[in-house]
């Protein structure tokens, strides 16, 4: 018996930008007016500061990042001559621990009138590091097939910078009140794709799907991939999830109704084709959509078997690596 395991948006080597911001400023999972119905960022921080899984999401020390994630702070330092100098300090994952300790040294929470200290927890960090070591040595049993689906195509925080040349940080405990700036990489908005696909396991396949960290589980394309891997429903011998991720369905509408003895079916479907080909920016304004139509009719022996169908495909010019495709179709048949 062979078991199959599909993993969606894992982050075995960490989500460095997300975690740094969560430790120092808190984290919100909603934007805009929806924040009025969600707990505040700092309340979320107070909940997460004792959460082991957040410590486990710190950038993995042994992972060879393409670009090393950094915590950067513009600081004002006084030299021996008494003059102040503005410098940009950079800290890698292990070095950032001292910054977290000092920034959260006096952090407390009020519980029924009692002030409870909530500093950066070194004991939890120690346990998290041990967990990461165990996970790095984990192997999948031979009878289990492992698949990895992760999110892509969204700006994802990677390195975090506090302060500026004009407004340096003078006290690390001020970091909690400073809005950071981010250096972004490709990912699902929370976990960099570089981290998400580095599961360290013997995977049958790894597929990047354009989607957001939580919303990806609702993507129809993900369901199609899972059905293919799990062999659920009617198999499609021409479907290959490894390269099919470049075609992203963006809209699908289908309607059927009867009117005056006619059976009418209308279909509207849209896709985005993701390509690595570079756009020719000089000719973008001159390009026009390609439109193609086809009509088919069928006549039977009598009027009751007559049917007609019409379809139009519109292929829009490629823009920023994406090409939008629209399909509109309608069929009309006599309702026997």
TrEMBL record:
Q: Which InterPro entries match?
A: AB_hydrolase_fold
Top-rank lineage group of the source organism: Eukaryota
Question: What's the protein called, per UniProt?
Answer: Uncharacterized protein
What is the native source organism of this protein?
Answer: Citrus sinensis (Sweet orange)
Q: Which taxonomic lineage does the organism of this UniProt entry have?
A: Eukaryota, Viridiplantae, Streptophyta, Embryophyta, Tracheophyta
